[in-house]
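task queued by scheduler; priority normal; single chain, no ligands, no partner chains; default sampling; output format set to structure tokens
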Amino acid sequence: MTIPGSPHRAWIEIDHVAIRTNLEVIRRSAREAQVIGVVKANAYGHGAVAVARTLVASGVERLAVATVDEAVELRAARVEVPILVLWGIGPAEASIVTERALEPIVYDEGAIEVLEAAGDRDGVRIGVHLKVDSGLGRQGAAPDDAVALATRIARSRHLRLVGTMSHLALPGEDDAYTEVQVLRLARVLDAIRSAGVDPGLVHVSASGGLLAGAVTFADAVRPGLALYGLQPGWAADREAGLVPALSLRARALRIFDLPAGEAIGYGLRFRAARDTRIATLGIGYGDGWPRVHANNGWALVHGRRAPLVGAVSMDGLTVDLDGIDGVTYGDEFVLIGEQDGARITADAVAAERRTINYEVTTALRERLPRLHRGVD
């Protein structure tokens, strides 16, 4: 079936006006702190290059990614601001760090040695961020080791200490533990300064810490989720002024009548109790819409909720149109987003999957075209 008015059977729309609005909200909360915009995992599913360009055009001072490959994509798109790589690098990636002028994290002697060798070989001085494990426990130098590492970096001819950072485990959920983490980092910073070393840009809070107001002495914040208008689960009911930027839409590939007693889909997991009108949408787990939505979830059409029924296949799913008259091949179905005053949020979808909103948007795959609206 040809889809009227759209070259796509299913697509994502990204509202860049919303992203700019969210950045303004973040800046008000962060006050004078620098913003390091986190665009890892394809900007949480929103499209890393397009989002990065909007953030930079809106004055964001730095970007952050998880991997060297993500940073290379941005550099290839001529994104020139400093890029922080949030996860440790290996020896094979050091030459890319120097070539692309990236800012990796370091937290042990091994990483320092690798980067010093790369800087010496390529004739550059590499900016690094010292990561301190204040209690999250994944990556980072032990607080007792941090001063020695900072001192070594400061004395290096091939490295410079751009920043000192940590990451919070339970912001907004356990204030006592957050205070412990903040105190550990503050002591490390005092010791680094007492050793005559400038710790550089201090940054701790991601979106959760920012919303919780957890760290007031930092020089920068690292929002990710909040840039996209989403909030951590503990803050889901808080009115923060953020606007969701992503919607997921589709059109029907087939609209047909399913007689009472007949079943559809793999495993015949839905059987019609009465004569029922069904729409088949061209989106499935190959696009990042998982099989857990078998007989679980909703789509909006004509501003009304229609249940998802039957199994989700790799390339399609089915919707029960019972009670919603006049649906045509030209109508949009909304799986995430707003239509005629009705809304399905990423949080609601996450609840159906028993996961978090982060996973919902980052799971959306490249096969789904991203249409960027409101780009300057």
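post-processing summary
- The chain is about 30% helix and 25% strand.
- Residues 32 and 165 are 17 Å apart (CA to CA).
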